Each structure stands twice: as C-alpha cells, then as structure tokens.
Amino acid sequence: MRIIIEDSYESMSKKAALMLAGQILLKPDTILGLATGSTPIGMYKELVRMHKEEDLDFSNVVTFNLDEYVGLDKNDKNSYHYYMFQNFFNHINIKKENIYIPDGMAQDLEEECKRYERIIEEKGGIDLQILGIGKNGHIGFNEPDLKFEATTHVVKLDEETIMANSRFFNSIAEVPRFAISMGIKTIMHSKKIILLASGEEKAEAIYKAIYGPIVPKHPASVLQLHPDVTFILDKDAAKFIKLR
Ligand SMILES: N[C@@H]1[C@@H](O)[C@H](O)[C@@H](COP(=O)(O)O)O[C@@H]1O
Questions:
Q1: Has 93 been annotated as catalytic?
Q2: Distance from the CA of 160 to the center of ligand 1, in angstroms?
Q3: pLDDT tens digits for 189-239?
C-alpha cells in the first residue's frame, strides 16, 4: 500500500489526475472504474483541463461506475449518471458506447447486477479503480456488514450514508434507500486502486482502513489485501497517519 499525503484538496486532486493520465498514456484503451461523491470532483476537473489543454485522449478509454441509486432516472440531477455526464463525460472525448453505469431503473435489479458484472468480466476487468470513502468506511456503496458482499449487488443504504448524502437532495425523504453497487470482489479484482479522501471528517475512516483489522464492519479495510493500492489524502484526512 502506498500513502501519498498532499497539502490541499487541490494538490490531492491534481496528483490523482496525473496518475490516471499516466495510466491512459501507457494504455490508451484503459478500463477505468470511476467514483462519484464530492471528493473526485477536483480530479475530474483537472482531467478535463488536461484533455482540453494537453490533448489527453479518452477516445479508447472504457469506464465503469461503481454505483447508482435505485429509482432515480438518468436525467434526475441526483443520479450518478447525471453527475458523471455533468462533471466529466460531457467535457471529454469519450465514446458514449464505452460508458457503463448500473441502471437503477432496471425492472429486474438482480438481473441488472449480473449483467453489469458480466460486462466488466467480458471487457477484461478494471485496470484502474478510483474510490472515495464514506465516513463509516464504505467504498462504492458497500456498507459496513457482517460479511464482504462479493459482486455487484443491490444495497440497502445505512442511515449515516442517507444522512450524509441528503445534502444533495431537497429533503432527507428524497434520498433513495437502495442502490446498486459493485461488490468488494469486483473492486478487489481491479489491477490498481486509488482511494481519495479529503477533510478531517474522513480521518478516522482512513485510519481504520489502513491500520485497523480487516473486517466487513469497515469495508475499506479490505484494501490492505490488495497488491497495488494507493491512498491519496489531504493533510486533514491523513491526520492520524504517521509516516516514518
Ligand atoms: N457512493 C458514494 C461513494 O462512492 C463515495 O465515495 C462516498 C463519499 O462521498 P464524498 O466524496 O461526497 O464524501 O459517498 C457516496 O455514498
């Protein structure tokens, strides 16, 4: 595990964008796993800048998003679909057919999970997965649990997550209670993983992810078992980390 501590949110975002751009330069048909939430917004902004000013080419890149709310239409401004197009896809030269996001409106959600997992496999698996982290240690929407959920599945969101994400909605009642999320196995099968965290409110979750026991009660702790994972943190999120 590599841990990179940056002074600010901006430099954390730039470092992540640089690593992702490096991956695309080395392998133009890279398969990316992408995350939502407020944390990666700076990284997406920087990647858009690199596309516009430095010709970073996304024409052969394939992307799979980690998760999506159940019951929100693609055009709902709170869907992760909408988020991804607004913050990233509309501003780069990615091909629409190379973008994969779970369909939270699917009639048969179980079948949708299987379908999603199957496409990831058919494409050869994820080369580089970007992750954020919830205050309760969730990655994607893998909430604290009694066991690590293996592949893409339907999740019942924790009260804490519903509360945290309610800031984007008009009221807490509007926050979906369910989501589709890649599972821990899907995430752990990625060849490389970069986890981003910013702000003091993530410091404890980061500490437990790095030093804590590997337990499904703290989903991010499983990353200790991955052979190529990099945490890029700002100073505040790294508050409890001591580097020698
Ligand atoms: N499903 C997403 C996660 O993928 C994200 O990492 C997390 C943290 O979000 P934020 O970056 O806004 O703190 O929240 C959401 O619930």
A1: no
A2: 12
A3: 999 999 999 999 999 999 999 999 999 999 999 999 999 999 999 999 999
Q: How far apart are CA 76 and CA 169, in angstroms?
A: 11
ipTM: 0.96
Cβ(168)–Cβ(78) below 8 Å: yes
Would you call 76 a catalytic residue per the annotation? no
Q: Is ligand 1 within 6 A of the CB of residue 35?
A: yes
Do the domain assignments include residue 242? no
The pLDDT tens digits of the residues spanning 83-130 come to 999 999 999 999 999 999 999 999 999 999 999 999 999 999 999 999
- 104 lies in a domain? yes
For the chain, how many structural domains are there in total?
1
**Residue 176 CA to ligand 1 centre (angstroms):** 14
Mean pLDDT confidence for 133-142: 96
Catalytic site residue 103? no
CATH label of the domain that carries residue 218: 3.40.50.1360
Tokens 């993530």 -> residue = 202
Q: What is the largest CA-CA distance in the chain?
A: 52
> What are the DSSP E strand ranges found in 1-117?
2-6, 31-34, 62-65, 67-69, 99-100
> What pLDDT score was predicted for residue 244?
58
Q: Is there an atom of ligand 1 within 6 Å of 33 CB?
A: no
